[in-house]
């Protein structure tokens, strides 16, 4: 299949994920707490199960990895699923949650989808292009921290020297917003956010967003400047421009020298 075919398939997955999510959103749904203290709901499990069924039916030889069902990335082609990124938003009735699906080839993300059901928005990205609801999207031209709009999911994801480094960056930028989960990355791809800095992430949190942001013209690396792959250490810098990325990296990369 071509990358265009894969992106069409991601669009189909997005339709399915949206339909299931909206059946449960803002209903009195049971919330469980997993061993890592994060919440999980029936909706998380239902979406992941449906994504697994559809992908396995289309690509029976591909490896499936999901936040709820587990699995390990392998050589060849793997699919990585985060059924509800932002479950805390979901269970509190806030619309900024999403479904993330990535196609990974030879352990690197190639195509990705950010589906945001409650906002009726969907981003799909691949090599050299990205779209929002089928229309091309691009990152901003922001080149310096002093002009940047920064997003991060939660200040409590940082600790020690990382916490102090993030605080210094937050003091330098023009705007800082928390609580955005995957929606912040989508806004970066559409040019409304310029910089995202996060820590403590898992591969299902990031693999889908990498091709979307890179396809929109942005840059995504670890704090040490390495590509994001299955072995990344949980930290990430996503920036609209190389110069902005370099400024942020000067604060964060030094922690890994």
UniProtKB/TrEMBL annotation:
Pathway: Amino-acid biosynthesis; L-histidine biosynthesis; L-histidine from 5-phospho-alpha-D-ribose 1-diphosphate: step 8/9
E.C. numbers: 3.1.3.15
SUPFAM superfamilies per the UniProt record, alphabetical: Carbohydrate phosphatase (SSF56655)
Cofactor: Mg(2+)
Pfam family, any one: Inositol_P
One GO molecular-function entry: metal ion binding
Reactions accelerated catalytically: L-histidinol phosphate + H2O = L-histidinol + phosphate
InterPro entries in UniProt: His_9_proposed, Inositol_monoP_metal-BS, Inositol_monoP_superfamily, Inositol_monophosphatase-like
GO biological process, one term: L-histidine biosynthetic process
Keyword line: Amino-acid biosynthesis, Histidine biosynthesis, Hydrolase, Magnesium, Metal-binding
Keyword Aminoacyl-tRNA synthetase: no
Residues noted as binding Mg(2+) in the record, renumbered to the chain: 67, 82, 84-85, 205
Family note: Belongs to the inositol monophosphatase superfamily.
Designated name of the protein: Histidinol-phosphatase
């Amino acid at each position: 299949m071509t990358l265009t075919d894969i992106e069409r398939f991601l669009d189909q997955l997005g339709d399915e994920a949206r339909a299931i999510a909206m059946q449960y959103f803002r209903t009195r749904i049971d919330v469980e707490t997993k061993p890592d203290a994060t919440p999980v709901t029936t909706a998380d499990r239902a979406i992941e199960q449906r994504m697994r069924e559809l992908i396995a039916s289309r690509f029976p030889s591909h490896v499936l990895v999901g936040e709820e069902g587990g699995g390990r990335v392998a050589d060849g082609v793997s699919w990585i699923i985060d059924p509800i990124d932002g479950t805390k938003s979901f269970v509190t009735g806030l619309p900024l949650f999403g479904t993330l699906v990535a196609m990974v080839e030879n352990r690197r993300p190639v195509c990705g989808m950010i589906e945001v059901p409650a906002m009726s928005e969907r981003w799909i990205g691949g090599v050299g292009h990205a779209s929002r609801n089928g229309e091309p999207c691009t990152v901003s031209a922001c080149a310096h921290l002093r002009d940047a709009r920064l997003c991060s999911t939660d200040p409590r994801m940082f600790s020690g020297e990382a916490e102090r480094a993030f605080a210094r960056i937050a003091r330098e930028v023009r705007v800082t917003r928390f609580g955005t989960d995957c929606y912040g990355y989508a806004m970066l791809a559409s040019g409304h956010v310029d910089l995202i800095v996060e820590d403590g992430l898992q591969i299902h949190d990031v693999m889908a967003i990498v091709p979307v942001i890179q396809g929109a013209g942005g840059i995504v690396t670890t704090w040490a400047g390495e590509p994001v792959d299955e072995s990344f250490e949980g930290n990430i810098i996503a920036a609209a421009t190389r110069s902005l990325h370099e400024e942020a990296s000067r604060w964060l990369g030094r922690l890994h020298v």
